[in-house]
Amino acid sequence: MRFSASMMKVWQDCSLQVKYKYEDKLEVEERIWSKTVFGTIIHAALEHYNNTGSVDEAKELFLLWWNDPLVLDENIKPINMWGRGLTYGGLRSRGVQILDEYHAKNQWENREVIATEHSFLVPLGEHWLSGYVDLLEVKKSARGKEPLRVVDYKSTSKQPYQAELALDIQFTIYTYASMQPEFWTGVSNEHGETAGFENGQELFERFADTERRAIWYHLWGNKEIDAGKRDDMDYLRLYRVMLECAKSRELDVYVPHISGNSCGLCDYVKECAAVGPVLDRLEKTIDLEEDEGAF
Fold first, then answer.
1. What is the DSSP string of the chain?
2. pLDDT in tens, 164-174
3. pTM score, two decimals?
């Protein structure tokens, strides 16, 4: 079976969401959030900057794409949900500021960009893992070391604790994947196809013994947080989660994770027998109380 990094992340939140989203592919009322579209565009502008080093070009492209997202991707849909305090002009200015700050932080750094928006498909046991890495770079640390940095850009305003990132399964997947030859050379099989690098085998050998550093990069504040090292225990944990997910799919049994905090934000709350009726009852109760209060 093939598992994407995003699917595994959803699995940890609630396995029933995996069924609705990836297995049943249920249609949901689309909520195109402003920050989602903003994130797509700022990622693309940063990719251009990392590949060219030109902040002026990156800003020009960002403004072009923000003005008309279809120029970047014809599949981008119009924004229909705006977060609190967010405006078109505000996000436009914020994007330019992010690029300026990112450039100021990196222009004098001794770094080597290895890849941007790199897609991968690698084996783990009898299954396969897929995903995208925003940035692979080598940057000399304050201690003189040159680790391979696996960077994931985040445009969310919520900054996680380092302890959360130490258990983040996406970073475990990214780090594990970068240690596999298929990550560099590419692969083509019944599970998918990735191009890899022209000199993939050379890069694999070059970084075989290089330390990995997983970096959660907070674009909103241009601040990076080290997600911590990964070792065999982390990869064993990843393997166990993957086996649970595979067994669930084979048996078609999905146990909902009733957190109480995020269920009301789930796209599939109407389909969920565990939460949907509760929220329906709550909504009706509120309606009745409002009606009674009107007399």
1. -EEEHHHHHHHHH-HHHHIIIIIS--------BHHHHHHHHHHHHHHHHHHH--HHHHHHHHHHHHH-GGGT-TTPPPP-B--TT--HHHHHHHHHHHHHHHHHHHTTS-EEEEEEEEEEEEEETTEEEEEEEEEEEEE--TTS---EEEEEEE--SPPPPHHHHHT-HHHHHHHHHTTSHHHHH-EEETTEEE---TTHHHHHHHHTTPPEEEEEEETTTTEEEE-----HHHHHHHHHHHHHHHHHHHHT-------SSSGGG-TTTTT-TTTHHHHHHHHHHHHHHHHHHT-
2. 899 999 999 99
3. 0.86
